[in-house]
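[09:14] KT: can someone run the structure on this one? pasting the chain below
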Amino acid sequence: MNAKRLYDLINMDSAEEILHETEAVLQIAYPEVDAGPVIQVFHDTMSLYAGTYPGYQACSTGYHDFQHCAETLLALIRLIHGAAAEGLLLANPAVKLGLIAALLHDTGYVPAQHEAIGAGGTHTAAHVNRSMNFAGHYGRQHGFTADDIQACQTMICCTDFDADFDAIMWPSQDVKLLGKMLAAADLLAQMADRAHLEKLFYLYQEFQEGLVSGSDSAEDLLRKTMDFHSIAEDRFKNKLESTDRFMAAHFMQRWGIEDDLYRLAIENEKAYLHTIMRHKDPDISSRLRRKGIVKKIRSEKKN
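[09:31] RB: done, structure tokens below
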């Protein structure tokens, strides 16, 4: 196959297509794993973000939305499949819990019914702990064992940039590896999104609502993304044990593609971002047109 973009393989804007591809890859890598619980959590998480899950309001975060949860799920199963293709096999129960953790890893952004109405950005600083708490609440509601809940929560904890991995009490080596894979999948799903640069304008809105300092404007956040690429690479290599490397084996085994399409998408983004910065355009956002995101945000500001 000559595909050179993730979007050439499936419609990455369709959560349902992402779910179907996840099921297909899971069947290839771990045919004994029952996809049923993962599918249920997928639809429950979709309901949660939409505001139809009991006890919760809709969450309208444009960056950390349900689509990102779905894309993280897909990135994780691709890493799991790539690892299996290289002979690194994981326990079946841990694989299932890892996929569930991927879906629940950002649920902390969703406001509960009793909380003040907001887009969800209010909970930016505490979202990982809130996500872990929701995983516990959800797990108890659906009959998860205490050990399964702990495994999910531990893997979700790994997505926190500030998490001290040396201080984590790992339930097993499989959970430890899957936690690092989940953290890698979380980053890959964000950075390889074809509208990632545009979505940074949503991220800035979340930072503002959550009182997160560090950027003076969306354009400033965009400029700092050049440095973030280096920070992410260091995280992949040194903290996550280069678990992102398993993508290459996945694309070769699943699609016969020699390229890691996530890495290719990230490199293309970096190149375009450097091009924008070199032009020193006073209105950087004018070069970001995908999905009409920036235009929509500007229009909402005017109104």
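[09:33] KT: thanks! The chain has twelve helices and no strands.
[09:34] RB: yep, looked fine to me
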